[in-house]
TrEMBL record:
The gene is yihA. This is Probable GTP-binding protein EngB. The keyword Cell division applies. Necessary for normal cell division and for the maintenance of normal septation. The keyword Membrane does not apply. It comes from Flaviramulus multivorans.
């Protein structure tokens, strides 16, 4: 897929106020220091479409971007480690839950995970919640440029080992690096394939 256009549509904390169109949506979410904004900018070939920040937890709203006039990329607040008050965290975690529970346009979620670290409980718990609620998702491993190939393979295997304790199969996953454009075509082609399948249906 070639990204011809990418434009900001809206930000809000109320799922009921999300775009009324029936366009398919793909939601990106992960811990607040996982490199989500950089990944979105890499995928769309726009340097500042999503705001990157040295302060984790900057994204605290549901952000919709219209891609190629025919699908929405949704940037959701990061979970965990955000330096915000407990009350603020509860508010935006609530609308994250509402988004996934109520948004019929959602095709699949992409859960971003830092490839450099061992499986983290907060990531595993969120994936478990998605699974229990029947929400399709893929894992996007970020920052692959920080590790050697053997280490990448080993860390992915660590995730497989942990996830297969409770899952029948390893979820679909992608290896990416925003700084090296690694995995860009894989993720975009996957989204393109899902969009095409919906047209056939």
């Amino acid at each position: 897929m070639h990204i011809k256009s990418a434009e900001f549509v809206m930000s809000n904390s109320d799922v009921a106020k999300c775009p009324k169109s029936r366009l398919p949506e793909y939601a990106f979410i992960g811990r607040s220091n996982v490199g989500k904004s950089s990944l979105i900018n890499m995928l769309t070939s726009r340097k500042s479409l999503a705001k990157t920040s040295g302060r984790p937890g900057k994204t605290q709203l549901i952000n919709h971007f219209l891609i190629n006039k025919n699908w929405h990329l949704v940037d959701l607040p990061g979970y965990g480690y955000a330096k915000v008050s407990k009350s603020s965290k509860k508010v935006f975690q609530k609308f994250i839950t509402q988004y996934f529970s109520l948004r019929e346009q959602l095709v699949t979620a992409f859960v971003l995970v830092d490839i450099r670290h061992k499986p983290q409980p907060i990531d595993l718990e969120f994936m478990q919640w998605l699974g229990e609620n029947g929400i399709p998702f893929s894992i996007i491993f970020t920052k692959a440029d920080k590790l050697k190939p053997n280490a990448i393979t080993r860390h992915v295997e660590d995730y497989k080992t942990v996830l297969l304790e409770t899952w029948e199969a390893m979820p679909n996953y992608f290896i990416t690096s925003s700084s090296k454009d690694i995995g860009k075509d894989d993720v975009l082609n996957y989204i393109d394939e899902l969009n095409e399948n919906m047209k056939i249906d």
